Amino acid sequence: MSLAGHINTYARxxxxxxxxxxxxxxxxxxxxxxLGRLRDRDANFLALMKRAVFDNPSSPYTPLLRMAxxxxxxxxxxxxxxxxxxxxxxxxxxxxxVTIDEFKCRQPIVRGAVTVDxxxxxxxxxxxxxxxxxxxxxxxxxxxxTTLSLGRTSYIAHCQAVALEAHGLTGRPTLLWMPALxxxxxxxxxxxxxxxxxxPKKWFSPVASSAVRPSFSKRMATLYLVYAGxxxxxxxxxxxxVSTERARDIVRYIETILEQGRGxxxxxxxxxxxxxxxxxxxxxIGLSGVAFMTGGEPLTPSKAxxxxxxxxxxxxxxxxxxxxxxxxxxxxxxxxxxxxxxxxGSQAVIRYERNTPFGGGAVQSLLFTSLHERAAKILxxxxxxxxxxxxxxxxxxxxxxxxxxxxxHTIRSFDKLTGxxxxxxxxxxxxxxxxxxxxxxxxxxxxxQMVELEDVGGQTRLDVIVGPNVGxxxxxxxxxxxxxxxxxxxxxxxxxxxxxxxxxxxxxxxENPHLTSGGKLLSLHIGKKG
Length: 530
Ligand SMILES: [Zn+2]
Description:
Elements: H1 3-22, H2 27-39, H3 41-54, H4 62-67, H5 72-82, H6 84-93, H7 100-103, E1 109-111, E2 114-116, E3 132-135, E4 145-148, H8 150-166, E5 174-177, H9 185-195, E6 203-205, H10 209-212, H11 216-231, E7 239-241, H12 247-258, E8 264-268, H13 270-283, E9 290-294, H14 301-309, E10 313-320, E11 324-329, E12 340-342, E13 347-355, E14 362-370, E15 382-392, H15 398-401, E16 406-413, E17 416-419, E18 422-425, H16 426-441, E19 448-456, E20 459-466, H17 475-486, H18 491-502, E21 506-510, E22 524-525
Parallel strand pairs: 5-6, 5-8, 6-7, 8-9, 9-10, 19-22, 20-21
Antiparallel strand pairs: 1-2, 3-4, 10-11, 11-12, 12-16, 13-14, 14-15, 15-16, 17-18, 19-20
């Protein structure tokens, strides 16, 4: 986009920001929004599907629905008779779904005689024409671009206001410890908190701008939003870089907030929360009254335990760049520490069994469908690369009382490596392991392997296994090369690799690569723990 085009986009976005910040999201208005969307759920879904899919010949779903013999009339009667989830499950069994590799256009969609070749843009919501573009990392190309819509951010802010109320956190001062653009997650949470009337007191970024070298337009976007937000009365802080070594500064800042006696909510990744918890424990600072709202990687039992050890609590917020925010942690009787309520007004989630591409056997892969008219992507049974346990039950918390009965927990990834809130897709790692490392250090592809070790002392660690056949290698150079390769492709990838470099996520281990229980040698061992 040209500079003039960018300026035009931001000017329109800033104009929208005025209305966005002008109307406060409260727990009360949030309850109304959730109830309204539940009441109109079928109608909203049918209207979106009619406009974006059935009446849109260029939709990638059109050939799949035709193959399944599903016309709009059949679809509508099935939704009204059997419900949305049952209809989606039926369509999945007929081949109407999109795997993560198909969604990322790493392979065409092939179902029987039907082949659909699509571009990533084909999944964009065609009715979302304005908004700031942000990219997710993990692709050798540009990463998946999504459009940040204020309409949808407003809806999520209402849901977040309910989440805070459900957990008894309304009115607490907030802090943000997430990267700025090119990743949109930090910015979105900042906007939500501002709309709730609790803009973060500080925005700590775990990544230095100099390490990422974001494009001019993205640097401008962050500053623009900060100053536009301030102009419209929200006290929005600019992001400020704090390295992991300076985690103590963050903990000290939390301590000064706690002295005001109102507690504190810190939005960050589970790994950052563990770093803060551990720093607090070693400094003799109690974090009682602190709630970490964590997202970006699994909130595992051992991470939650580390957080509790410091006297703090953790509330899961489950989101992905493609789907957006999927749900918030249950405040009632939970089945697991990452148990969330699916925000059923904006998406439907079903699952199907599939084999994982990198070993580990069969998993219950989650399929997502968009129900919100301002969703960034039109998803119909699209995989995100995550699997988990779905169940429908009463829990006694505010979300449950509002009618959100579908829970999701023990959520893990089967095709990507996630550490420190940063996610790289498996296929990129495989290329590095199978091609880049042997070309540089010798040996063959089977001499190398990457193993995800979940929660080594509360932190996700990734080991690069280098077999003894390879001979002498400089381990620091192996780590450098892997990080350099991961950082290629987009400024989001650079940002994610910078976090992994700074937090020393990668280690080299000299031993023979592991075989799976089936005797296979895989370049990547993930999603097997938890
Ligand atoms: Zn609940």
